[in-house]
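My hope is that you will study the record closing this message with an eye to the fold:
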Amino acid sequence: MSRSMALKQLWWKEWRQLFPLIGLLVLVGLFLQSMTLLIPGQIQWRQFLALLGMPALFAAGAGALLVGQEKESRTIDWLRMLPIAADDFVRTKFLVAVVGLAIVWCVSGMLGFATGAWANVSDPQGRAFLWPLHSVFLLILGFATSWKLRSSMIALLVVVPLACLPLLFAGLHQSLLDWNANRSGLLGNDPPPWLLATYLVLFAAGFLFYGWRAGVAYFTAAAPPRSLGLSSQLALHPQALSYSRVSPAPALLWQFAVQNRAALIGLALLQLFAIL
């Protein structure tokens, strides 16, 4: 199989893997729009939030779907046998997700124009461009966490607190600017759109570089060594047959903390951001 043919097959495989998520989000968007039309009263903001939620959910889950499932199902070991370089493999997955995000945004825009949700939304501060930019940042962040972490569920948990980093740093930057201007302490004003966009671009570039290197390193990693048999393990560790009088509870707690440290850290950061 030539390299071009292998890339075409890889594109088709990745697209088939991503298509159920796109179809599900489109169906959910149609359902939410139909439900809001049946509710009397002022419902424009509900339609607007439903339209914005579709690209955000896709951006957060695309990395876990295209990368996390490949790692959990071990199909990435089969993909290593294809005549495709590690850079091509990572690039194909990311570009397929970008095309899928563009499709979801197009569907969301068409639903917004069809239902009149976009016409009833005012944007005096010019922040509308931040939503597509933030969805691209979420997409890059989801790929970075999925390449680095073992479980797709843990990767999704870690995305939640990390997605607040641009807003947090932009808020701190604006607070420092206010403090320098007024000399009266931190005022906590909302950052302007250009400042938030700057931090979104900076964090997106950083996570893209980090996730790209993590993906290439994972794809080119050597196969794990062959495990030793029981007889070899007993020969290396004869004390394994000896009876231990130590309570297993501390060892089990330590094993639980080590195996789930990423999920515990993500939940702790999520709780910290919720408190702030």
Notes: The CA atoms of residues 144 and 210 lie 7 Å apart. Confidence is low (pLDDT under 50) at residues 223-228, 233-244.
